[in-house]
Specification:
The protein is built from 3 helices and 5 strands; from the N terminus they run αβααββββ. It is of the alpha+beta class and 165 residues long. Strands 3-2-1-4-5 form a 5-stranded antiparallel sheet, with no helix packed on it. β4 and β5 form a beta hairpin. α1 runs antiparallel to α2 (62-76). The radius of gyration is 24 Å and the shape is elongated. The chain starts with a helix and ends in a 10-residue tail after the last strand.
C-alpha cells in the first residue's frame, strides 16, 4: 500500500511540474494559438541597448496546492499508527505546499532580455522578452510585431536593392 501511494505521489508531482513548466513564456519564438493567422501591426526600430533580466515566476497557488496534496498523502501513508499518520499527513501537507510553491515560482521563471529601442519617429521604448533564437545587439535594425496587445522584437529582414537593368 505504501509503495503504491508513494508512486502515485511521485507521478502527481512530476505531472504538476510538467504542467507548470508549459504554462507561460515570453519567448519571441513561441506564438500562442489565438495569435496565429491574425493581422499584426509592424513598426521599425533600432536597438539602443540590450541587457539581461529575469522574468519572475508565477505563484498561482497551483504548485502549493499540488505540493500540499502530494505531501499530505505521502505523509499520511508513511506510518502505520492512525494518530501518527494524521500528524505526518499535516506536516507532509505543509512541507509539500512550501516546496510546491517554490517549485512553481522557480519552474516558471525565465531568463529574458530588456531591449531599449528607438522608433523611426524618434520615440524610445523598452520591452522585455525571453531570449529567443536571434541575438540582438545595439545598432541592429529590428521590427516590432504587435498582436493582441503583446509586442515582440525580431531582427528586421535584410532587404537588398533590385539589380539595375
Amino acid at each position: 500500500m505504501r509503495t503504491k501511494l508513494s508512486t502515485t505521489a511521485t507521478l502527481l508531482a512530476a505531472l504538476s511540474l510538467a504542467f507548470l513548466a508549459a504554462c507561460s513564456t515570453t519567448s519571441p519564438d513561441v506564438i500562442k494559438p489565438g495569435d496565429a493567422q491574425r493581422m499584426s501591426q509592424v513598426a521599425d526600430a533600432v536597438v539602443l541597448n540590450v541587457r539581461p533580466v529575469v522574468v519572475e515566476g508565477s505563484q498561482s497557488g497551483l504548485g502549493g496546492t499540488a505540493g500540499a496534496v502530494v505531501g499530505g498523502i505521502a505523509g499520511a501513508a508513511s506510518t502505520g499508527n492512525p494518530r501518527g499518520s494524521a500528524m505526518a499527513g499535516i506536516v507532509g501537507a505543509v512541507v509539500g505546499g512550501v516546496v510546491g510553491n517554490a517549485t512553481e515560482r522557480f519552474g516558471t521563471r525565465e531568463d529574458a532580455i530588456e531591449i531599449l529601442l528607438q522608433l523611426s519617429n524618434g520615440e524610445r521604448r523598452a520591452i522585455v522578452q525571453a531570449k529567443g533564437s536571434e541575438t540582438l545587439n545595439p545598432g541592429d535594425a529590428v521590427i516590432l510585431v504587435t498582436t493582441g496587445g503583446k509586442t515582440r522584437v525580431m531582427l528586421a529582414p535584410k532587404v537588398t536593392a533590385p539589380a539595375a537593368k
